[in-house]
Amino acid sequence: MIYPFLHTPCAIVDLDIAERNIRAMAEGAARCGIRHRPHIKTHKSVYFAKKQLEAGAAGITCAKLAEAERMAAAGFDDIFVAYPLIGRDKLERFDALDGRIGISCAINSLAGARGLSDFARERGKRYRVFIEVDGRMGRGGLPPFEPTAEFAAEARKLPGIAIAGLMYFGGDVYGLRGEDEIRRRIILEADDLARTKELVERAGVPVEWVSAGSSFSSKSPELLSGIDEIRAGTYVFNDCSQLSIGRIGVGDCALRILSTVVAKPDACHAIIDAGSKTLTSDLVPFRRGHGWIVGHEGAIIDHLSEEHGFVSSDAPIELEIGDRIEIIPNHACVAVNLCDALRGVRGGRLEADIPVEARGLNY
Q: How far apart are CA 83 and CA 285, in angstroms?
């Protein structure tokens, strides 16, 4: 039986794999003269954020202000909040961190930038900000090139903010499959930012840092010409987004959901104790189902209820009631956010219970 000492379902992390992933990303960035500011929204834990700093990370990236507050309380003092802060409640919380730690945030609208600037002036401060350039996702950033340059010129007039640079997330790479297609998208990311930086500086706004990089593009740092900083997140665990297209192997996936077979209606179907409250409802392109069953790749978790996963196969499944399986989740970040703790294992033994301190801190 796999890990008989653990209750199921639960999230386990192979620490050897996770540490290898952390080292590989850090070494690749350093080799290309790029600093790494990892996104902690994947693991949401002090334990892994410290591992990333030990490997040479320049600081950390948080998705939301509440994550930053929790990490600051744990002693992290160089944090980028990769999100615009809208509303006085957010500004008050950001201000409470500013000065106590080195902190910056994103801006992507004049309304948001003015609100931040006005609040900073009330406090007699200038807040450090990065302009969000849309990574061709339509997710809130300024369109690259002239629109970003025009925005930067207006934002620079605001006395309460100091523009440090540009940020970008080319997340549409997750919908690509072929290696040539992925490489072209990574090169496009660098080109988008190089051309935008040139136009912004031509508009009179100095750009100190260009921050970009997904877990796809950050694994090819040699293609990120002109990028000063990457913000990879999922790489620490990996998941089906890259496994399903063959960019990584099962042995590169540190995060697994441990689950038990609780019923077997017939030879080609089984029911497991991991449902949507464990595996999430996220899907990935190019592969059916809700995760990759290690050692049973022909079996598909084809649908979920809250507490049940329904496994099917065209051929008889070599699973019986009581058997345990490991599932690589489709989306590591969302699966971790459902956990109070991750079980850190090494060599078949439980080494550490790792709290997910920032779980649910999505505000």
A: 26
